[in-house]
Amino acid sequence: WESKSEEAFQTELWGFLQLLHDVDFEDGNEWCSSASSDVADPHFGFSLNGQAYFLVGMHPHASRLSRKTAQPTIVFNSHYQFERLRQMGMFEQLKERIRDRDVALQGSHNPEMVGTKEVSEARQYSGKRNPRDWMCPLNVRVKATQGKET
Fold this sequence. Notes:
Layout: H1 6-26, E1 46-48, E2 51-58, E3 73-78, H2 79-87, H3 91-106
Antiparallel strand pairs: 1-2, 2-3
């Protein structure tokens, strides 16, 4: 990847995720039933091989220090692990620890880290601060049996 800015990384990230999704769709995999395929839905989750993931994009030019890495990186966190943490009553504690560490590292918590189902998690994947009217560029294709085919 040739990212030289957060904008470039975000463009490259979504281009890569589109390629992954297209291959996954062509391989016959359905979108994970526990996550919405609507990128604007608060219950959206990136699906790969029928499993939903929360993604964390990291790169050398990230404005958030906790997102800086030597090479562009994508971390795939299973939605299942977050649901288990919620069931165990530990999710809120984890979210607060992450925010506290972010404040200690950078002086403020990441404003894109919502941690609730108020807005689509897709806003958080690249780590870039996006305007309120930002639209996720992923073109999700689902089988006709899942309600639509595009």
